[in-house]
Amino acid sequence: MTVQDRTSWTEPGDIEAAAAGVRSRAHGLEHPDDLDRLVEQFGDRKYVLLGEASHGTSEYYRWRSRLTARLIREKGFSFVAVEGDWTNCYELNRYVKGLPESPGTVRDALEAFDRWPTWLWANWEVLEFLDWLEIHNQSAAEEERIGVYGLDVYSLFESLVAVVDYLEDVDPDAAAEARAAYRCFEPYGDDAQEYARALRMVPETCEDEVVEILTRLREGGAADDHGRDDYFNAEQNALVAKNAEQYYREMVRGDVDSWNIRDRHMVETLDRLQNHHGADAKGIVWAHNTHVGDARATDMEARGRLNVGQLVREREGRADVALVGMGSHRGSVVAADSWGARLEEMTVPPAQEGSYEHVFERAGGDDCVLVTENLPDDSPLVRPRGHRAIGVVYHPAREAGNYVPTVLPDRYDAFVYLDETSALHPLAVHVDPGAVPDLYPWGF
């Protein structure tokens, strides 16, 4: 049976057998103490990747934050890397680590996330986790403080500006060269999408310019005396600019290469972060299930797509990597009906019959965690089923197109099921903190 085969998803006997498998192997999830098994089983791994079935669901953010806090406190994880732009996330890093020139408050840092969709990071769920992390870091030596970093590749122009600003301080001649090289982008008005659109008409790229500046920066890196973190930040911004230019250039062609460029960039950044933090460093990743879950266990592979979970597993081996997915049966979510549109709180309808989410609901509908390692080969939970994925653009009325054919134990090492979930709390909507419910009643 191939991953794409949907014929068995709705067979009643198969659904009931799979539900029985969940009842016999999953354990309940009500309190942070219920994360004990995940902490103990995965706490010694080099990377723990935590997924989510949408970017607009409060409970995904909350359980991910609780598990992250425990891995940091109890298992000595070194950094958190998220599906966000490097430049904006580095301001969060400055704040939680108490670095010079950090934002005055964490809300100041989060409100700098002005690229659509802003709600991914500018929300109360993230704000409260970052406040916890900043307090946690206060009792740690400077070199042991836990940072937050962005893995994504979208910040082309912001990263260009950051490189020039850095070079202004350390090497004015190199800064002048960088400004001259980046002048190639001036006709596009600091708009990466405009750069991509222009390539359809005039296929003259700025590829050589961004490669040249990255090379120049690396050649001069050994002479830098402005701090290891400052140089690392500048070099990463130069790398983002190079890879972002390639991403937007491939996006024009409309094929899968831009997706693969993006996920390869995320893994390259993850590798650089691990090296930057030392040989024994361990990292936590926050990203959508479509990046975290191994692409080879879905129909992504047949479409020529790879992802972060696959690449990290291939490089490190399964024993050093934990992939944790999340999903829910019904509820509400923050999303938009088209790219760039206003955010909305939308209803998430009950999961499609025969999907993994439907199976977990039939098993009793309780929030739970299923560790998928060591499931027997003949388990009905090993058969391909639909697994819901909600993007930042979402149309609840078109649910059939939101399911990724998946072999769950091959895609994840563990799956967190939350029966009914609620919408995220964006700062732009929930301005008054007094109106926001107590999101972490048990703390972290």
TrEMBL record:
CDD domains: Ere-like. Pfam families: Erythro_esteras. Gene3D superfamilies: Biosynthetic Protein domain, EreA-like (biosynthetic domain), EreA-like, domain 2. This is Erythromycin esterase family protein. It comes from Haloplanus litoreus.
